Amino acid sequence: MDDQPIITLENLTKSYGDKQVLKGIDLTVMPGKIIGYIGPNGAGKTTTVKILIGMLGHYEGRATVAGFDVRTHSLEVKRRIGYVPESAAIYDTLTPLEYLRFLGGLYGVDEGVIVSRAKEMLSLFGLEKNLDDRMSSFSKGMRQKVLIVAGMIHNPDVLFMDEPLSGLDANSAVTVKEIFARLAEIGKTIFYCSHIMDVVERVCDRIIILSNGQIAADGSFEELRQMNKEESLERIFTQLTSEGEQDVVASQFIQALSEREERVD
Ligand code: ATP
To answer: Ligand 1 centre from 240 Cα, in Å?
Structure first.
């Protein structure tokens, strides 16, 4: 199975009304890799992920996960994937253990396995004292940790993550990055959407830059660096995706503020 792609996209095209958001994306991902899927706001990252996890229909082209066509075998796909959204409505009145038991049950995971996995993973995030607290009392970071554990509770082959480090303190972020590396070592695939360039630069085996619904660059950080003759991913990203000079935009922003003040005076 390891020589078969875990994700493929063939001419993936998606429009919302008249607006074409994905413009024919072709992509092949092999298992055991950490993929950084990055791009400016509105580039189409979440749209791609939502198609891959079966949350979004009405697209053209083809998407497969673990050899299954997402359109025709969505249950087979869902069994093999986990999804960690940037933020989500979490069942506030439940405790993390109740929530994870509920979710694991939906995936058909044995109750004993769920509870031991949940306790172990939550403890690794320092939530061992909060297992039975209602999540309504949780901070943003604590909720994010529960979402990350929830994405992994059924031991999926592929983890789709949308800015998973959002709200995490530095220690927890290091833990998550370490978990990514270990998961990849055991053959899991991480599909990681983020705007945190230095993390993507350090953590991802392969970086795909999406711009305006098309792939603008695809390679390891080293390959992108050599191709674009820039030292940091942030600079490469800006070079490939920016429409204007950032310093000019900043000046115009400040000017807009002072003009307003002059009018108020
Ligand atoms: P961000 O970095 O801001 O999260 P993104 O790359 O994930 O952006 P998407 O959320 O995929 O971008 O959105 C791509 C484009 O599709 C945007 O222009 C957005 O306005 C549009 N879009 C997304 N969802 C919908 C929707 N349900 N209806 C109409 N337009 C949508």
So the answer is: 19
